[in-house]
Amino acid sequence: MTTTAFDDRDGVIWLDGALVPWRDARLHVLSHGLHYGGGIFEGIRVYGGRAFKAAEHFERFHASARELNFRVPFGPGELEAAMRETIRHGDIADGYVRPVAWRGSEQISVSGAGTSVHVAIAAWEWPHVFSDDARTRGIRLRTSRWRRPSPDTAPVRAKAASLYNICTLARDEAEEAGYDDALLLDFRGHLAEATGANLFLVIDGALHTPTADTFLDGITRQTVMALARDLGIAVHVRHVEPGELDRADEVFLTGTAYEVQPVSAVDGRSYEVGKVTAALAGAYTALTRSVTVP
User: CA–CA distance from 287 to each of 57, 171, 211 (Å)?
Assistant: First the structure.
């Protein structure tokens, strides 16, 4: 399938306080964030022209910056207003918003002291990550050799660009082996997450999801757990061992981009898209498309 490169599109991107032509939204090659990983980002979904849970995302954006020891020069409210302007200008109906912040090019040194911080917001039409068939039948995961790091070795509470190197390596290896995504363990060997989504197992009708102490406690994850409780489905947040995949009746992933994504296989195990996954996918769709979307 032929796609347009992300640096060669029509439209505008909000950059450091103003909308600029899409192709002109650039950074210098000596930007500190490019060389030393001093960058953060968010992903926000747009449904019917309205962003879902934007306030929570921009609060997390600021929290991620604090974890990386820099300050975003625009407040959450300013960023939300800029995002709405970007969505309107692009006439985005069902799409995706990518806010990103990075350290500038005042110096090239491991220390980031004295560097400026730049912020950009881009938005584009993007209804779904996977095909309709994959969203209905599920995707296939392969357990990766790469693991989520200990919280005393990496800023695991931040949505930091540098942490996604692990995800890229894992995802590339999984796709080369014929899978759709990778499943990562944490440094202790517990189940953790996929490369861009949180993990849920359905065991005896209840949800079981790993404790978020080595990865982000996703906003979609929190939303789906609340929906499950509203539906009377028990939710257990705990350390989950890989062997418990043998006990699971259903497996699914959650994330801003993935939404509620069924899993049909993990390594040699197969799963049906069962009633719990279907009920939560339906409830999430109803919530995000409702007229009361926050």
Answer: 17, 30, 25
First to last CA, the chain: 35
- Which of 157, 159, 171, 221 is catalytic? The answer is 159
Give the CA distances from residue 111 to residues 28, 33, 35, 65, 118, in Å, rounded to whole numbers and listed in that order: 18, 11, 11, 15, 17
Report how far residue 163's alpha carbon sits from residue 215's, in angstroms, rounded to the nearest whole number: 10
Residue with tokens 């505008």: 12
What CATH number should be reported for the domain whose range is 12-125? 3.30.470.10
Q: Is the pTM of this model over 0.90?
A: yes
pLDDT at residue 129 above 60?
A: yes
Q: In the CATH hierarchy, which top-level class contains the domain 132-288?
A: alpha beta
Give residue-wise pLDDT tens across range 154-171: 999 999 999 999 999 999
For residue 1, what pLDDT is reported? 41
> Is the pLDDT at 294 greater than 80, yes or no?
no
Asked about 53 being catalytic, the answer comes back as no
Distance CA 89, CA 137 (A): 36
Least confident of 98-102, 123-127, 154-158: 123-127
Domain ranges of the chain: 12-125, 132-288
Which three-class secondary structure state does DSSP give residue 209? strand
**236 pLDDT more than 50:** yes
Would you call 213 exposed, middle or buried from its count of C-beta atoms within 10 A (0-12, 13-18, 19+)? middle
CA distances, 26 to each of 8, 75, 106, 144, 242 (Å): 12, 22, 16, 34, 43
Residue 3, amino acid: T
- What's residue 143's pLDDT? 98
